[in-house]
Amino acid sequence: MFSKNYPSDDTIVAIATANGKGAIGIIRISGRNAFQIAEKLCNKNVSKWNSHTIHLSSFYDNKRPIDQGLVLKFDSPNTYTGEDVIELNCHGSPLILNLILNTCIQLGARLASPGEFTFRAFINGKLDLSQAEAVSDVINAENEVSLQNSLKHLKGGFSKSIDKLKGELIHFASLIELELDFGEEDVEFADRSQLLSKINELISEINYLVNSFKTGNAITKGIPVAIVGKPNAGKSSLLNTLLNDDRAIVSDIAGTTRDTIEELFNIKGVAFRLIDTAGIRISTDQIEQIGIEKAFSKIKSADIILYLIDAEKFDLSEIEYFFEQNQSASNQIIFCINKIDLMPENKLSEIRQILKIKKDYNSILISCHLRESIEQLKIMLTADINHKLENNNHVLTNSRHYNSLIQTNEHLIKCQAAIEQSNSHDMLAEDLRMALHHLSEITGDISNDDLLENIFRNFCIGK
Ligand SMILES: Nc1nc2c(ncn2[C@@H]2O[C@H](COP(=O)(O)OP(=O)(O)O)[C@@H](O)[C@H]2O)c(=O)[nH]1
Ligand SMILES: [Mg+2]
Questions:
Q1: Residues near ligand 1 (Cβ within 6 A)
Q2: Nearest residue CA, atom 19 of ligand 1?
Q3: 460 in a domain, yes or no?
Q4: What residues contact 10, with CB distance under 8 A and at least 6 apart?
Q5: Which end of the chain is more exposed for a tag (fewer CB within 10 A), N or C?
Q6: Domain stop point among 391, 411, 428
């Protein structure tokens, strides 16, 4: 395969480490002239060195030494790009790095475009497209869970399950194509009931992946947690307590928080987006009313809702009402009974008793002032996501993959209908082809220049 945006028959070079001064800086060279260039740069017989060895050397610009460092030599094909590769570890000075880079360019290398090393790995079959994308996701991961997920994709587990789905479809697609070849004769090589059950199976497997996209999005961007409840229940206090910071204004004047406040925070590598909202009540204040409407919309989009209740005003019907109105398959509500420091123990046991009877409510008794049960609340926040991650082999995080899977399923659903209605072979074959086409987009068996450019231009130079 050849892409007009990335010629692949020349030798590329780039600084691989971040801008600025550091202990070391790394320059990478890849391509058929990599060793020749290194020979001139180091004034050493680099081509004769064994593969995967490290050598101390000076670096020269026209016989003038510019630095001293390590040279790593990798013979193709067992390299990152699949080509001959040289890595130079020099001192981490922008001046030195640029001098060496310019020398390599004078010696015939071309400055690499963003992601071009990974692109070459892709065209040389070292990585498929979804793995190449995972390289960039690994670098950009901002929390541990999202890092772990990207690493899984990089190792190729996700690609393997896509290949498995593809293999099953190809089998049937080829039988249907064969039927087409027989033209007028009404032969059926592919058992329709087997095909139908296979398609049903594929649709549900793809749906499973598609549904994991919400979790995937949440782990990269932070799981949205809305803190809601009546004015003065302690919502802003809980936000501050969880953040360990006086982020939101806390006061005993009801209606203090009129806009929503959003802050990212991390529990054991899982990112959450905490959203403090205006207290829900009937208000004549126009601005507060806008805040209350915003609170309702945050409730709708949140994955987790922390509904706060002032323990002194505990009322089961408030819980029941909120639960009925807002509970859905896509969210989890945790009722937090706050300010327990103000309550005598016998009153608290009463509340515990009432809540115990109603087991379907997820609830916890807390005190923001004393930080009581705050750690336990954090465990409750992570429990749901940990459960989802354990149960999902592959969590979809890439919207390109998501779109391809949605389109695959659209065609599979048409196949389903075509079989059920005994439609013509032609239509069935065409939908099978299209379903395969969209599946193949994910791993890059089918791609085009624009798609590739779109993916690789978001990489760092030198990767
Ligand atoms: N005693 C006690 N007071 C609290 C607690 N949490 C919040 N408060 C007080 O309750 C009032 C309302 O708190 P705030 O966080 O502004 O409530 P919001 O309107 O729900 O955001 C403030 O005076 C807080 O100091 C708690 O755990 N114990
Ligand atoms: Mg508030």
A1: 231-237, 250-252, 256-257, 279, 338-339, 341-342, 367-369
A2: 232
A3: no
A4: 31, 33, 109, 110
A5: N
A6: 391
